Amino acid sequence: MNQLFQIHPNNPQQRLISKVISYLNKGGVIVYPTASGYALGCRLEEKNALDRICRIRQLDNNHNFTLMCRDLSEIAHYSQVENSAFHLLKKNILGSYTFILKATKKVPRRLMNEKHKTIGLRVTSNPVTLALLEALNNPIMSTSLILPGNNFTESDPKNIQNNIGTLVDLIIDGGTLGQQPTTVVDLRNVPVVVREGSGDPGPFL
Fold it and tell me: How much is the pTM?
């Protein structure tokens, strides 16, 4: 039976944040809130947790996993950021975007897109996620919680518990959220909008 923690969406309880971190450190898979719906997450090093996430989402080797980061400097640690990409990132870092960039050697190979050796990167304004990242002191390996056959991220923690509660270790109830996934932008060369979501694609076109 998984755990469901009700964490205040604006003032996360540090006691509960610490408990979530203990689940992550034990190789757990969590469901957590972001600025654009709920996501599945685990530690970067946890292969078994990643395999579980792939089964839940039915993902193949060409999927761009995302590192949920604290800030731009952390993004630059895990990806190759050219000057042109840096300026776009700085301008739009807190928007509802996931950026695709060439991964550095700091990224475990299994998290990269198998063909292009890329990784998705994102910074969120969600207070719960920010508290988790600060406590973990590392990015969270993340993917939007879009169940097979759906086009939108899951938004209701109670529905999530009913649908996949037996497949994850912990669900954070941070309230009902929006359902639009992030806009995905490939920043390796000329910016290309790969998927339109809740972020305005205008700045990148």
Answer: 0.90
